[in-house]
Amino acid sequence: MGTLAAFLILSAVTLIPAVVVVTSKNIVRSALALVPTFLGITGLYILLQAEFVAGIQVLIYAGAITVLILFVIMLTEGGTGIRIRQVNEQVAVGVLASATLAALLIWVFLRTPWPRGPGALPEHTADQIGKTLLSSMVLVFEVTSLVLLISLIGAIIIARRER
Amino acid sequence: MLLDWLYVAAFAVIGLLLAGLSLAIVWVLSLRSAYPEKRMTYESGMVPFGQAWAQFNIRYYLFGLVFVIFAVEVIYLYPWAIVFRQLGKFAFVEMLIFLVVLLLGLAYAWRKGALEWI
Amino acid sequence: MNWGAEIAKAVLAAVGMFTFLAIVAAMFGVLLERKIGGWIQSRLGPKHVGPQGVLQTLADTLKLLQKENVTPRAADALIFNTAPLVVATAGLMGWLVIPFGKIGETVLVVRDLNIGILFFAAMASMTVIGILAGGWASNNKYSLLGALRSASQMISYELPMGMALVAVAMEAGTLSTVGIVRAQDGWMGSFVFRQFPAFVIFMIAAVAEVNRIPFDLPEAESELVAGYISEYSGMRFSLFMLGEYAEMFAMAAMTTTLFLGGWKGPLLPPLVWFFLKMYLVVFFMMWVRWTFPRFRLDQLLNLSWKVLLPAGLIWILISGYRITF
Amino acid sequence: MAVGLAHFLVVSALLFCLGLYGVLTRRNAVAILMGIELMLNAANINLVAFNKYVAPAALNGQVFTLVVITLAACEVGVGLALVMAAYRNLETVQVDRINMLKW
Fold it and tell me: Cis link prior to C214 (omega < 30° from 0)?
């Protein structure tokens, strides 16, 4: 009962700002509405017993990516873009496509008999994640560092003024 | 575990409510006199011109970018930090490779002047 | 589990903690700051309200509560009004994981989260959003410039702080704050000895995170009016200040927890030890504020990116090597 | 009614489609990136939910989530760099006006 109430509140906290993100005319408000969306998703992770991922969600999405997006908005058109139309001529198509896809996805999700695996989630997820990452997923872990390196180099090359 | 986070949620909600309450008290207690000059943007006494929502230096973006990349790196350090003792030398070497690769990134950003503020 | 009772307890804990913080961190903290500032600069500081001026901040609070909230015409009212609430709340949230002391076997902490210090770092990072939002919503050139400076400064110092937190987590083998205090046995066991570079990095980053002199560029009065709070007045201004002071005290409390052995100490009760150490750190931060001049922006960023960040990474490798082999 | 896998899947489907709508209809390149972020987050909810309800024995789903978060950070970094470059050269971030290749 308590969990269901928490779930409904958190879903609302996630989805209502998400609507603002995709519809607001003011692009800064859109970006700021990302924060409650991400925090709501953090709450959903908590309900799913993924504490560590929840902490990361706040730190990276709400604390870092949103800041970077806000920086770029302020460095480009920022609030001056309020007077510009923010949507293109595909609104009808967009509504149709996403509504169809949503209906389809939900239909599939509800009809599929999901299997239930054995075992239970550990109480402390952080150290388990560390062990998984450093043993069976070590290749993923190392490749991640390369991906980070390459995207850092690429972004610096693209963003810097050519001299 | 959920109980812990009930407290977190309570802290967040009560924090916002109490801060809002202080503004509500102000609303009740304060005298209000609105004349146009009071609500003018403050620019050291000059009459403001233009919008503040203008564009700024690209430097801010470069710092934001390097920050995001290294913030992501730090999240991998946390789970490693609490288990590497149990996993021994292998885990240390893995993290050594990871960090050296990222130090290369830092060196590149440094070399290319992404960390300079001019 | 009885959810109603638990929710009531959580709400009570939150209200109690916030009232305590408003008094100890904000009101008493501001008084302490002014008294110490006066003492260092051979002035008297506040003196007239109450004996030796101890009621000065109470009077200030009463004054602030009666001031009109002015919203500039050009501002984005919704965001302008929400931003101070976010900053104040984010400043208070970090206190959730701070262990104050121990009575018998019960540790005095609101909740001992498994991801304690990660939670602390996450909450500290939320302040940036509030500051950026407030500075942008003011629609004032000084505010926006101050907000951008503040944000770039805070994100720059979040990384070295994260490195210092990781170094401590390595030493203790846990992310929980109570676990970290328990891992520091005896006087020499305090992590300030074994993790001295991490301690230095953490202290510098902590002062920079809360935008205090010598890192107070965002509010540089002589250049930017008051930075991101230029347009804020009355209670909204004081909510920003409340957030800032709560976070400064939280940083001091975290330094105590991570490096100075938390509540541990001989003879005196644990609670007394904790507050003694915390106020020592607070005093140090105030001392620094009234002694040093302000950094230049490029010096500030160089310190973070070219000194503290590589130093933090290398220190993590050194500690890892020492612990592994 | 207890909260089960289906609840989370429905929320993530809705979030994904909101993100898709944003990507399809927005003109501002940054807003399109925000839509993509929403879609990635929807995927993350699914990964964590499947981890809990379908395969709780190992934490692979949560580790995947970390990887997705990493990739999202990289994607946003490079994507925004492209936006900055486009803005510098063409002085707009409206994607339907970035159409130089047509000539």
Answer: yes
